[in-house]
Amino acid sequence: xxxxxxxxxxxxxxxxxxxxxxxxxxxxxxxxxxxxxxxxxxxxxxxxxxxxxxxxxxxxxxxxxxxxxxxxxxxxxxxxxxxxxxxxxxxxxxxxxxxxxxxxxxxxxxxxxxxxxxxxxxxxxxxxxxxxxxxxxxxxxxxxxxxxxxxxxxxxxxxxxxxxxxxxxxxxxxxxxxxxxxxxxxxxxxxxxxxxxxxxxxxxxxxxxxxxxxxxxxxxxxxxxxxxxxxxxxxxxxxxxxxxxxxxxxxxxxxxxxxxxxxxxxxxxxxxxxxxxxxxxxxxxxxxxxxxxxxxxxxxxxxxxxxxxxxxxxxxxxxxxxxxxxxxxxxxxxxxxxxxxxxxxxxxxxxx
Length: 352
Prior knowledge:
The protein is an alpha+beta fold. It has 2 domains: 4-122, Phosphorylase Kinase, domain 1, CATH 3.30.200; 127-351, Aminoglycoside phosphotransferase (APH), C-terminal lobe (Aminoglycoside 3'-phosphotransferase, Chain: A, domain 2, Alpha-Beta Complex), CATH 3.90.1200.10. The protein is built from 13 helices and 13 strands. The chain has helices at residues 20-33, 35-38, 71-77, 90-93, 96-106, 137-150, 167-181, 196-213, 251-260, 271-274, 278-293, 299-330, 337-351, and strands at 9-10, 49-54, 61-67, 80-85, 111-115, 118-122, 127-128, 186-189, 192-195, 217-220, 229-232, 237-240, 247-250. A 6-stranded mixed β-sheet has the order 1-5-6-4-3-2, sandwiched between helices. Strands 7-11-12 form a 3-stranded antiparallel β-sheet, covered by helices on one side. A two-stranded antiparallel sheet has the order 8-9. The longest helix has 32 residues, at 299-330. The radius of gyration is 21 Å and the shape is globular. The mean pLDDT is 89.
């Protein structure tokens, strides 16, 4: 029996809008119903479940759920989970069954259950990093090592065959959504008009360029930003969360995309100021290579991966630019996705 087939399913739908108290009550009912799958005692009642909304991310709604009990019992039983409610319209962007299949391969015990519009996952104790933390030597080395470990996983589909629906498949789908919902989209970049046809043409050019380079394919997380890195101070560990954009792709994308996240949203996407220097990127790649290969690597190998990461950073700008446009058509979150998309696309078209 596969790990995916063992994930229980519940007929619950958590509202994504409306009174927050009512939404928390539905989340509480959901978690109380799945007591047996969580290993919680049957006599525990939903009145003991504390629900705390988390304001993280730009796609989903998050609720931390925990049993309120004395500290000793809490430490002994670790009664915490995270309920992730999928954002409005995100099912059109993402294949949720494929995502769930990937999650169970990357971290078998991560997913506790699924419900109609979300999943319940393990809650990892610790603090989300901030962009300014990414340059700290200790955290940088831990992220590099964790990324290298993830890249040793080979993703397969539900039939056990290598997963072929990759980054390009996803972005092609997103551009189709833009063509349907934003057919008149246009923006100017250095005097060049960018519209739906331009996006489609650019994606085809990128696909040709990357395929010719014959990069090694690995399991890419796809979104290793600061908030998706949980630092547990007590254990001195980094854990990755949120595998929505995980797929088999060239590892330079994960590395280059991570470098772009040094200039994350809270830094107003100021890549000129916050994108890591060559020395900083080299040190990250050196640490990554040592973890991936188990020994020090030649300067030639490090330089080759740095160049691959440059391609990854370029694709990152295009990816999140297109993502922002799709989100602008469906998301209920209070965030200017159109402005975000224009900034990322401006960076992409300014770099080619």
